Amino acid sequence: MRATVFAYPATLTRDAKGRFLVRFRDFPEALTDGASEAEALREAADALSEALMSRIVDGEAIPDPSPAGRKAYQVAPDATVALKAALHKIVREKGVTAADLSRLLAIDHKEARRLLGAREHSKVPRLTQALEALGYSVTTAVYDASKRERILSSPVAPRMSRIPLTRAVHVGGAQYEEQRRSFVYGNTKIENDRVTREMVDEQAEIMRRRRREGRSR
Fold first, then answer.
1. Of 153, 23, 11, 3, nearest in space to 64 by CA
2. What is the reported pTM?
3. Where are the domains of the chain?
4. CATH for the stretch 8-168
């Protein structure tokens, strides 16, 4: 997956009653409206989030954002939904399974499935860690909505600043194992302050011996 900005162009039009109708070129099913422009754009973010989650649930492909025209607004979904959409795109393209993610993150299978489930609650740090474990990095954008600026660049406007989801450098062998253990330690330390790096190394060695024993049978 190339660097992707999870903000999709939306157009606003007025209906006969004066309400603002919102449509997304990339998600025809995401339709909403509002009494004012500001309300319509707030509703647009919710409609986009729902459309993304529905596609994840149905196992469908998630499109890259189309170029935004001059009259289009770039709308970003809920941050958690955006990360789940990114994770969905990557595992779908690479053929990664929940079991693969479980082994990579050293978490149980149920938690891995929750990360991949659109309707399952997941924390942003955990989703970020999952993406990093797959070789991707995440960057967040903060903008002043009151100025009605474009949030991010469109895919065909290289002169504008772009906030990417970029591919990280691949590592392997002992370096990969060290990186994985450091990742597991940092992650578990947040949730349980009594966890030490030695405990993580000990469990990792136990798991490695079990894998070797399993292959030798």
1. 3
2. 0.66
3. 8-168, 171-217
4. 3.30.160.250
